[in-house]
Design goal:
Elements lengths: L3 H8 L2 H11 L3 H22 L3 H14 L8 H4 L6 H11 L3 H12 L3 H26 L3 H18 L1 H12 L11 H13 L2
C-alpha cells in the first residue's frame, strides 16, 4: 500500500495547490518547497509523539474522534477555508515546543515568513491526520500497529531523501529554541514533493 504522503500527494492536484497558494499568498515554487518539507515535519512530529504509550493512545483517540479521512475527498474546497483554532492546536500538539523554531527554520529555508509557514502547517495538519485516520480505519490498526506504521513511514522517507530527512530530524530533535542550519532544505523539499507528485 502507498505511504501516507503518497496518499496526500495523490490529492494535491493543480486546483488544490492553486487554492492553497491563493490562500497563503505564496508563489508556486515557494509553495512546492514549503509543502515538501512541512509534510515530513508533521509526520515526523507524529511519529515522535507515538513513541510513548501515552502519546500513541492520545493519537489514536484523536483519530477515532475527529479524523475519518473525509477531508481527503476534496482538498481544493478544504483549502478555501482559513485554518481554525482547532487546526492551530493540532499543530501545537504535533510539534510541541519545536513549533516556533520549526516555523522559523522553514521560513528561512523557503523565503516565506513565519506567519505564512504557520498557516501552511495549520492547513496541512488536518490533511495528514485525515490520511492517517483513513489508513488506520482501513487497516484496523491498534495502538501498537499505529506507532509501528508511523515508524515505517519515517524510515521510508529516510530512504527516499536522506539529506532532507537528516535536516528535518535535526530540527525535530534539537533542544531549546536555537535554529537549525536548513540552508538546503527548500531545494530538497521541492525534490521530495515532486517525487511524490511524479512531476
Amino acid at each position: 500500500m502507498s505511504g501516507l504522503l503518497d496518499m496526500i500527494a495523490a490529492q494535491l492536484d493543480n486546483q488544490s495547490l492553486g487554492q492553497l497558494g491563493n490562500q497563503l499568498g505564496a508563489s508556486p515554487n515557494s509553495l512546492t518547497s514549503a509543502i515538501g518539507v512541512a509534510l515530513p515535519v508533521l509526520l515526523g512530529g507524529l511519529e515522535r509523539n507515538a513513541r510513548t504509550d501515552s502519546g500513541a493512545e492520545a493519537l489514536q483517540s484523536a483519530l477515532n474522534r475527529d479524523h475519518d479521512g473525509s477531508v481527503m475527498n476534496d482538498l481544493s474546497s478544504f483549502f478555501k477555508q482559513q485554518p481554525t483554532q482547532s487546526d492551530a492546536r493540532m499543530v501545537e500538539h504535533i510539534l510541541g515546543s519545536r513549533r516556533q523554531a520549526s516555523e522559523r527554520s522553514l521560513g528561512q529555508a523557503t523565503g516565506l515568513n513565519q506567519e505564512t509557514i504557520g498557516s501552511l502547517l495549520e492547513n496541512l495538519a488536518p490533511v495528514v491526520m485525515g490520511a492517517l485516520g483513513q489508513r488506520s480505519r482501513s487497516e484496523g490498526f491498534d495502538i501498537g500497529q499505529l506507532a509501528s506504521m508511523l515508524g515505517s513511514e519515517t524510515r521510508d522517507l529516510d530512504g527516499r531523501e536522506p539529506a532532507t530527512m537528516g535536516m528535518i530530524n535535526q530540527l525535530l530533535d534539537s533542544d531549546g529554541d536555537g535554529d537549525v542550519d536548513v540552508a538546503d532544505l527548500a531545494k530538497h523539499g521541492a525534490s521530495l514533493l515532486n517525487s511524490f507528485l511524479r512531476r
